[in-house]
């Protein structure tokens, strides 16, 4: 990432990073994470009554961190704000200089902070970026697998900065919550998924959210091709269970 000196705005390097179309707030079932969802919606919308400039999310893989960060970028784009989603595990290949000029974004969403924890050059670059964003009145949304003080950070000042604002833990959904999430995703695709079908999928397939969504994608395509509603026998046949 570099900065166009004529405009004072960031110019995006070609990183091959795209927002998932389905990563929207409407597609996110909050369950116990409703307060975190409200905070992310607020930081994505500068007109929100809840004035947020910095927010930190943490949780286990599959808890919805990446989904919410990408949803925030989608929402910001709707109001013509300049937003950037950057998974730090991928950015790591380009070196910490990729963060130069990113304070020019209206909203910057940095995912998987733990991927660069313990690397001094990255930590220093992130510390300075945080300060530049604060000084310029930008908005910063960060996610990681652990709370700020639980990360293996070597720069105490960065740990302090990361814990200085709102910090939310994203809690894994219960089985009931996963069932409701599946039914919500199916409904948004135009599919009717009865409760017994959702419970059957949960009882037979992998239980992590990414695997459940892959199963739903497969079932959606099969239902469309066969012009068949979702029933337990149909799911059995399509999934080979």
Description:
Strand 5, helix 4 and strand 6 form a beta-alpha-beta unit. The protein has a five-stranded parallel beta sheet, sandwiched between helices. Strands 1-2 form a two-stranded antiparallel sheet. By secondary structure, it is α/β, with parallel strands linked by helices. The chain is built from nine helices and seven strands; from the N terminus they run ββαβαβαβαβαβαααα. The N terminus is likely disordered.
The Cα radius of gyration reads 20 Å
Strand order of the largest sheet: 4-5-6-3-7
How many strands in all?
Answer: 7
- Largest pleated sheet: 5 strands, parallel
N- and C-termini, Cα separation: 47 Å
What is the tally of helical segments? Answer: 9
Name the helicity range.
Answer: 40-55%
Low-confidence stretches: 1-14
Shape: elongated
Strand residues, percent: 5-15%
**Helix/strand class:** alpha/beta
Task: Please provide a brief summary of the model.
Helix content is 43%, strand content 13%. By secondary structure, it is α/β, with parallel strands linked by helices. The strands form two sheets. Strands 4-5-6-3-7 form a five-stranded parallel beta sheet, with helices on both faces. A two-stranded antiparallel ribbon has the order 1-2.
Write the layout of secondary structure elements.
Elements: E1 2-4, E2 9-11, H1 34-44, E3 54-58, H2 65-78, E4 83-87, H3 88-91, E5 107-111, H4 120-136, E6 139-144, H5 156-162, E7 166-169, H6 175-188, H7 195-204, H8 209-226, H9 232-239
Parallel strand pairs: 3-6, 3-7, 4-5, 5-6
Antiparallel strand pairs: 1-2
Helix pairs in contact: 1-2, 6-7, 6-8
């Amino acid at each position: 990432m570099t900065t166009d000196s004529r405009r004072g705005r960031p110019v995006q390097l070609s990183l091959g990073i795209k927002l998932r179309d389905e990563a929207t707030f409407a597609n996110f079932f909050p369950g116990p994470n409703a307060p975190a969802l409200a905070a992310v919606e607020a930081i994505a919308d500068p007109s929100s009554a809840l004035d947020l400039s910095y927010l930190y999310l943490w949780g286990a893989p599959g808890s919805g961190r990446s989904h919410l960060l990408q949803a925030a970028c989608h929402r910001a784009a709707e109001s013509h704000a300049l937003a950037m989603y950057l998974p730090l595990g991928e950015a790591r290949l380009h070196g910490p200089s990729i963060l130069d000029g990113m304070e020019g974004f209206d909203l910057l969403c940095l995912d998987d902070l733990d991927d660069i924890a313990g690397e001094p050059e990255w930590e220093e670059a992130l510390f300075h970026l945080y300060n530049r964003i604060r000084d310029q009145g930008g908005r910063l949304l960060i996610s990681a697998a652990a709370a700020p003080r639980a990360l293996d950070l070597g720069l105490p000042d960065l740990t302090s900065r990361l814990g200085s604002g709102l910090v939310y833990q994203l809690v894994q959904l219960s089985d009931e919550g996963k069932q409701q999430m599946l039914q919500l995703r199916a409904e948004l695709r135009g599919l009717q998924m009865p409760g017994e079908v959702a419970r059957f999928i949960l009882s037979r397939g992998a239980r992590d959210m990414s695997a459940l969504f892959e199963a739903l994608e497969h079932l959606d395509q099969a239902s469309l091709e066969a012009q068949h509603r979702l029933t337990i026998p149909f799911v059995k046949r399509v999934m080979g269970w």
